[in-house]
Amino acid sequence: MAWRVLVADDDPEICTLIKTILRNASFEVSVCPDAESALVHLQRDKAYDILISDFMLPGISGIELITMVRANPQTARLPILMISGHSNYAMDARAKSAGADHFLNKPFTLTQLRSTVTALASKYRPLTAAEEAKIAAGKAPGSAGPAPAPPQLQSPPRVVGNPARPEGIRVTSSAPLTDAKNSGSESH
What we know:
- By secondary structure, this protein is an alpha/beta fold.
- Helix content is 36%, strand content 16%.
- The strands form 2 sheets. A 5-stranded parallel sheet has the order 2-1-3-4-5, sandwiched between helices. It has a two-stranded antiparallel sheet with strand order 6-7.
């Protein structure tokens, strides 16, 4: 895998969506439902290359999580992407003031997420030639890499999210996105 990503978000559908988007782009992704478990992962696991945190988390907020990550010498340089569906300029400014490297508003596109995460992670830890070759080999036709998803070129965008949380993530890619537990989820 290229880069290791830790996601802290209390919405399991958003976690599944981010995990699917980034895994399809050769990222290794771990998810946490709250800031407390994210802090445990950051201390216990092999180093991560980027942290993606929701602004609003149960218990410790995303802002407090960022502050704690920046205060720890082991994680102080870790790139942090803050995401939120309740976006305004003040939230963006608070996130960056706390130490977030970038703020991404929900809904975001597959391309926005991938390019932002790639840019932040590569700034922190550029890929080695061997990692780049492995990724390229995984995408080459006939390679032993992951099997390509069946084409669904004309599929309409879907909004994925919890009905109790009206902000969704609008998927604007032609790549299929499946989640076994939500195979009959809302489509718009």
